Each structure stands twice: as C-alpha cells, then as structure tokens.
Amino acid sequence: MNEEINTSNEIKVEATSNGPLLVHGSILLTKPDGSTESRSNRTAFCRCGQSANKPFCDGTHRSISFE
Questions:
Q1: What is the pLDDT of residues 11-52, one digit of tens each?
Q2: 27, exposed or middle or buried, with CB in 10 Å at 0-12, 13-18, 19+?
Q3: How far apart are CA 31 and CA 15, in angstroms?
Q4: Other CB atoms closer than 10 Å to residue 2's CB: what's the count?
Q5: How many CB atoms lie within 10 A of CB 24?
Q6: Rounded mean pLDDT of 45-62?
Q7: What is the rounded distance in angstroms from the CA atom of residue 43 to the CA atom of residue 22?
Q8: CB atoms within 10 A of CB 6
Q9: Contact 47/19 with Cβ under 8 angstroms?
Q10: C-alpha–C-alpha distance, residues 67 and 64, integer Å
C-alpha cells in the first residue's frame, strides 16, 4: 500500500484486492456508542471480519488468506 497525502477536500474510497477498504481523505467516524473520531490522510477498514481492531484493518487478512 502506498502512503498518500490528500491535500484536497475530496474523499476517495478504494477496495483493495483481498485486503481492506481504504478511505483517502479526512473523515469523521461515528462509533456505535455515538462518540466520534477524526481520521485524516488514509484509513483502512477491515473487510475480512477478523481484525482485533475493528472497524480498522490490522493486517489479519494476510494470515487467513482472505479473498
């Protein structure tokens, strides 16, 4: 994965092959408890469902051969 710095207000969403959903740009994440967290540049969201750090990707997809 390439590090990318987004200097515009544009948000880009990228579904990676056998990996996370990448969101490029600044976002405000609302958690189930209603709290919020600001994220910037690049955020990787888990698609395999096995991350220990949900909703974020922790790389587990590699060890479980997620497709």
A1: 999 999 999 999 999 999 999 999 999 999 999 999 999 999
A2: middle
A3: 21
A4: 5
A5: 18
A6: 96
A7: 6
A8: 15
A9: yes
A10: 9
pLDDT given at position 43: 97
Whether residue 9 has pLDDT greater than 90: no
Tokens 């609302």 appear where? 30
Burial class of residue 46 (count of CB atoms within 10 Å of its CB; 0-12, 13-18, 19+): buried
User: What pTM did the predictor assign?
Assistant: 0.81
Q: Is the pLDDT of residue 8 over 90?
A: no
Nearest of 58, 42, 55, 6 to residue 66 by alpha carbon: 58
- Pull the structure tokens for residue 11: 């948000």
